[in-house]
Amino acid sequence: MTIGKLAKKVGVGVETIRYYHRQNLLEIPSTTSGFRLYSEEHARRLQFIKRAQTAGFTLQEISRLLQLDATRDHAKAQELAIARLHALDEQIESLQSARSALQKLAHDCEHNRGQPCPIIAAFVPGE
């Protein structure tokens, strides 16, 4: 299939596929009659990348997972997954903290009418 058909089948943009080529996440197929023709294996690899991104893995981590798949090193893959879980937990904690702070600012804004806006004041440097 052509790059356009592959992109449509997997639900990514053509430029995304080209980017994955440059990042060595996806092999560039050989040229046939002047066109690069992609296989079902390319589609499976792209679907793997998309699913891993949905799970929170970075492209660098996905590259490592793909290498581990070739060696069948389940222990290293599990280590990578556990490290990603810890990073996601930290992000969630940070987002919850930001949410709480913003929720308090919104509450303060609602109850301090006629005074300087606490939301804007919170983001002004030096205040």
TrEMBL record:
Keyword DNA-binding carried by entry: yes
UniProt-listed InterPro entries: DNA-bd_dom_put_sf, MerR-type_HTH_dom, MerR_fam
Molecular function terms from GO: DNA binding; DNA-binding transcription factor activity
Keywords in alphabetical order: DNA-binding
UniProt keyword annotation of DNA-binding present: yes
Superkingdom of origin organism: Bacteria
Span of domain HTH merR-type: 1-68
Transmembrane segments: none
Descriptive protein name: MerR family transcriptional regulator
Organism: Aliidiomarina sanyensis
